[in-house]
Each structure stands twice: as structure tokens, then as C-alpha cells.
Amino acid sequence: MGSDNMQKKLAVLIDADNAQPSIIEDLMTEIAKYGTASVKRIYGDWTDTRLKGWKEVLLVYAIQPIQQFGYTVGKNATDSAMIIDAMDLLYTEKVEGFCLVSSDSDFTRLASRIRESGLTVIGFGEKKTPKAFVGACDRFIYTEILRKDTTAAPKHRERTATLLRGNTKLVNMLRIAVDASADESGWAYLGNVGQNIANQAPEFDPRNYGFKKLGEIIKAVQIFDIEERSSTNSPGASIYIRDKRKKNGEK
Fold this sequence. Notes:
Helix content is 38%, strand content 22%. It is an alpha/beta fold. The protein has 2 domains: 3-146, 5'-nuclease (Rossmann fold, 3-Layer(aba) Sandwich); 157-247, LOTUS domain-like (Nucleotidyltransferase, domain 5, 2-Layer Sandwich). It is elongated and about 65 Å long.
């Protein structure tokens, strides 16, 4: 992440009814990759004993609890309060992005509206989160990967390559992203490929496949040529990739 991105001021809004307190430490660590959490609020009926786990961590992470009584049985009363606050922040506070923590599809329109104003929206929710909400965010991170270590790459390289190549959706997404980012010779800068994938699928994250970085998946799947190029403008090498079928003259 660049220094400008690290200084981005973010509003973190948590739906306590649709998020687990066990993720809080890793959640805040993850959010720090995208900017500074200048606003931290969590919404729920704090008279409800089911939110006891959240009460125990709010002070530690300086998260402001917002009370919303559940007047109607079976209805999530926190949604409206969270949406109203988000719109107030959008118009009155100097924030440059929002982190919406919920698995509830009711926030789909909110995410879309914030993006229409030119601000970044990062969603956090469980894998059961409806696709509409996931797709409305610039990036969506499944909270399951915040609860366990999924960053250890599999040991058996050939078996891993076979499994990844058998994932048609993943392979097609990678190839489309490389093709869209490639120059006339078929080579594509890895950073551009990653951005193209994010545009295709906000929920894509290498950790969902057991890897830390996109480059590790590219190596593991074994369907791309990989080339490191040095640059006078950068101390490190830049990674370029090309679909192996291009070298063989396939389309």
C-alpha cells in the first residue's frame, strides 16, 4: 500500500447483529491496510444479552456503541440507524472511504450510493453474504479468513496446481484479467492484473485459496510464464506474466 492510501480516513461502521466479536482484532488489522479508522461505530440493541461479546471489546478498540432498540420482533432495527449515520458522515465528515461490516443485503444500496459519491467502500462479511452486497463494494473481504490462518501455501506443488487449474471460475478470471492488461506481446504487469481482478470480483482474495499474494497463486497454477524486470525508477523488480498459450500460438 502506498503512503497516500495509508493516510486515507475511513469510517468503520459495524452491524453488531451480523458480525462476530471474535474477528475484531484481525478486522482492525485488515482495515489498517487501507487507511486510518477515524470513525469507529457499532450498531445494536445493547440491552440484548446476545451482544455481550461485543461489549467486552468496545473499550479496547475505542469503538463507539450506538443504541438502537429492537421495537419489532424479527426486524433488524440497527440497519436504519447505520444507514442514516453513513449518509450523515458522507455529507458532513471528511472521510474518504467506508468499511461496512455486515452480512446483510440491506446495505447494498448504501454501498452503491457511497460509491456514486466517489468514495471507496470496503465490505466485510461472512461467505453467506448475498452477491448483490458483495458486488456493490469496491472490495469485499470474507471474515472467515480473519478467524484462521489461511496464508500457508500447500506443500504439494503439483497437487496444488491441479486443484487450482480445476477451478474453472478462477482460471477464467485470471486469464481474462491477464488478457485485458497485456501489451501486444501478451505480457501483463502483475499490478494491473490485480486491479483488473478487483474490478471483476470485489470478493477475490488470495487468502481464500490459501495464499498470501496474487503472485503466489500465479506461480502455483502453472499456466502463466513469469518474468521479473528491473527498472531504473524502482529498487525492486517488477513482475510480468503471460498466458503460456500465447507462447504456443494458441488463442
